[in-house]
Amino acid sequence: MTSDTALLHYGIVRAAGQDIAIAASELVEAVDMPPQLMPMPGASALMAGMFMLRGQLIPVLELQRLMAPPGPALTVADGPAAAVGAGSAGPAAARQVAVVAHGGMRLGLGVDAIAEVLRVLPAAIIPLAGAPGGPFDRWLVADGPGGRALPVLQVAALLERTPGVVPAREPAAAGLMASAGGADGQARPVAAPRRHTLAMLGAQVLAFDFADVPDVRPMPEMRPFFAASGALLGLVAWRGHDVPVADLQRLLDLPAAAPATSAGPRPLLMVLQREGRLLGLQVDALLGMEMAATDAIVPLGAGASLHPECYAGALRTAQHGIAAVLRVDALLAHPLVASFLEGQLSAAARKAPQAGSPTSPSPVQAAGARTTFLVYQAGGGCATPLAEVEEILAYPSPAVRIDAAGSGMCGLVECKGRPLEVFDLRTLLGLPEAEATPQARVLVVRRGERLRGFLVDSLVSLVTADAAAQIGRDPAAGGDGRAGGSGLGRMLVVGQGAGATTCRQVDLGRFMGH
Predict the structure, then answer these.
(1) Is a pLDDT exceeding 60 seen at residue 22?
(2) What is the model's pTM?
């Protein structure tokens, strides 16, 4: 496994349809493009103007013009939209300024959007022969389906050696000391600022510590799995890991957003990472990055949230109003998320070789005996050890009904010359009832001399798996089949790679008392 310290961090910006990589250490923040820039006397055609950001003038360079020969000169009075290129019709789309800094100099880059954040190995950065020392003398070769190559903007070369570029000089650093105005007149230490990633979810602005967000990208294909609470939406494949994706609004009981339309923008996957644990969040938009000192985050008062442990406080952003600052470690420790992640880590530990072992053990040796599971549908993918199922019957329609039958009971069918109670497994699992189809089957389970049938939607397959394919906690003792009230329970991964699916392990014996 590659250590995070060996990876390089890059922010990806988009200009004129081209994605460009900028080292995250030099990408300070991203803000909305002001509707009007102030003119810069004697500026080259590369410079669009300047604006005031927290008391400092920031010159703005149009990145598109750096990448292509400029057309006829445009004045700053024409506005930032005109400075991008002439001949565009209709209202200009909202744009952003990516602020970069190096060696005491600072510059704003006019871009169309902040696209995503990447972490790559050093070997992914390839020098470009023929243009050494220029602003685009290297390329980033990203992994993923089909791969892609992105030009890397060399901020030092842009600020120091590119004709026509006029950066601003940052004020002289005063260290981390500032006058606190105390009675003794002594300087007080000022908390070092930290970079935060800003995202939009519904009408809410959220902030996360940048170090905890290794990637933001368009939402990939999601594999559904059985999660009765609905706060976990599914699994996505990310850099060789199965990452659960959470609905943050349900996880933290936030106000529900308006339902998305098919014509709306594609949601984004924000990956959170802390100490080997991974969680995906579905967000609507990436707003950019912002530097903030620790003392700029205002703690929330008692009773301000149903989940106070998940909030570091609130932050006043420069362009997006108030943002709620979320604690990634607390999100990962949420009972629903932790019950899933702990199972992932324990499965990984079972697969890992023991210290001092000359060779890695085989999967069967690492995980123990293999079990054959019956995989079926009951409002979602489910699995039960085949040894627990005594018989599988077709479901006669209609079954013999009993007046006022409750607790999910469908009725009576004949099995081995005697009446057999049949219960709808959907109802027992807390799901809506559905009409039985010709594919419906009854799974017969025995406890001592007692038989009981469970109606399922359809059979899927038989799968032989070892313990390494099982993730999540064992269900707590009780008759509801849920894990400590989380609704997740133990899961089974069926298949491998992109074709893998995840289903819930159901212990039908737990329902024999209903």
Answers:
(1) yes
(2) 0.48
